[in-house]
Amino acid sequence: MKAAPFAYVRPATLEDAVAELAGSDGGGKVIAGGQSLVPVLAMRLARPETLVDITAVEGLDGLRKLGDNLEISAMVRQRRIEHDRSADSVPLLRMALPWVGHRELRSRGTVCGSLAHADPAAEIPAVATCLNAQLTLTSPAGARQVPAREFFTGAMTTAIGPEDILTAVRFPTMASGEGFGFAEIARRHGDFALAGVAVRVAVSGGRVHEATLTAFGVSDRPVTRDVSAELTSATGAPEHDGVRMAKRLEEPLIGLARDMVDTDGDAHGSQDYRRRLFVTLAGRELVKAHDRAQRSFDEVKL
Ligand SMILES: Cc1cc2nc3c(=O)[nH]c(=O)nc-3n(C[C@H](O)[C@H](O)[C@H](O)COP(=O)(O)OP(=O)(O)OC[C@H]3O[C@@H](n4cnc5c(N)ncnc54)[C@H](O)[C@@H]3O)c2cc1C
C-alpha cells in the first residue's frame, strides 16, 4: 500500500515548526526519524494532512549535561546515545538501546520519537518511566514539563496534544550507590519484547534505599512499582548470595505479576507465559542491580 496524500513542510526553526503544527488544525503530524511513522502511513493506519519534518530545525540536535540530568533533544538519533561519552552517565539507557530494533533503525530513529510513538513493548519508554525522566512539550503556549510516569496514557497514547512537539527529554544521571538492570525476551533479536524489565536500585550504608521495577510488553504502557520492601526483605536474611536472593524474591514477584502483567495472550505467548517471563527477568535483574549498586557505593567509599 502507499500513504494517502499529505502536504509536507520542513521548517528551519522551532517557532516555525510549532506554528505549522498549530496551523494544521489537528491534521498535522511531526516526523522525526520516520522509522515508525513511515510504516504507519504506508499501511494507512494514519492519514495526516500535513507532515511537519523536524530534521532541519535548528537547535534540536543537542545532547548535554544539565545539572544532574542528561538532556536529549528531539533530533538526537538513538545510535548517537550508544556512542557519545556523555551518555555513559545514564547506564540504564545504554543497557536498553541495543535491544531497540536493529542498528540500521537506530541510525535514523530518535529517542524522542520512540517516546512519542509509545509502543507498549518499546524499550526507551520503559527506561524513561523507570527513571521518571522529564519530557519537555512545546506548543504555541510555551514549554511545559511532563514526568514520564504521567506521559504514557495508554497504548500508543501520550500526553502530547495536537499542537505539541516533544522538544527534549531529561534523564537523571547515575549517582553513587545506584545500580541498574535491563532484560527482555523477544522471539528474535530486534523484535518487540514479549516481556521485559528495567530496574533501578539505590543503596546506602548496605541497606536498600530505593528499588524501582518497570515492566514493558505486559500492559498497555510501561508499568512501574516501588519494590524497596520486597528487595529489603530478600537481602535482609543472613546470607544473601544472588541465587538465594532470587529465590526469596520469587513469591513477591509472582504476586506482582498478577497486578502488573495484564495484557491478553496472543499468538506469541499467553498471559501466563508472560507472567512467568516477568518473574524470572525481574528476579534476575533486581539481584544484578542490587549487586551493582552495592559495588558503586563501595567504590565511592574507597
Ligand atoms: C522493523 C522495525 C523494528 C522495530 N523494532 C523496535 C524495537 O524492538 N523496539 C523499539 O522500541 N522500537 C522499534 N522500532 C521502532 C523504532 O525504534 C523507531 O525509531 C521509534 O519508535 C520512533 O522513532 P522515530 O524518530 O523514527 O519516530 P517517527 O517514526 O518519525 O515518529 C513516530 C511517532 O512519533 C511522533 N513523533 C516523533 N517525534 C516527535 C516529536 N519530537 N514530537 C512529537 N511527536 C513526535 C510522530 O508524529 C509519530 O507519531 C522498530 C521499527 C521497525 C520498522
Explain how this protein is built.
This protein is of the alpha+beta class and 302 residues long. Helix content is 37%, strand content 25%. The chain has eleven helices and 14 strands. It has helices at residues 14-23, 37-42, 78-83, 91-96, 103-108, 111-117, 123-131, 148-151, 228-236, 242-260, 271-301; strands at 7-9, 28-31, 50-53, 63-66, 69-73, 134-139, 142-147, 152-154, 157-158, 165-172, 178-185, 195-204, 207-216, 223-226. The strands form four sheets. The chain has a five-stranded antiparallel beta sheet with strand order 4-5-10-6-7. A four-stranded antiparallel beta sheet has the order 11-12-13-14. Helix 9 (228-236) runs antiparallel to helix 10 and helix 10 packs across helix 11. The protein is globular. The mean pLDDT is 94. Bound molecules: flavin-adenine dinucleotide. Flavin-adenine dinucleotide binds at residues 29-37, 39, 54, 74, 100-101, 105, 108-110, 112-114, 116-117, 119, 122-124, 160, 165-166, 190, 192.
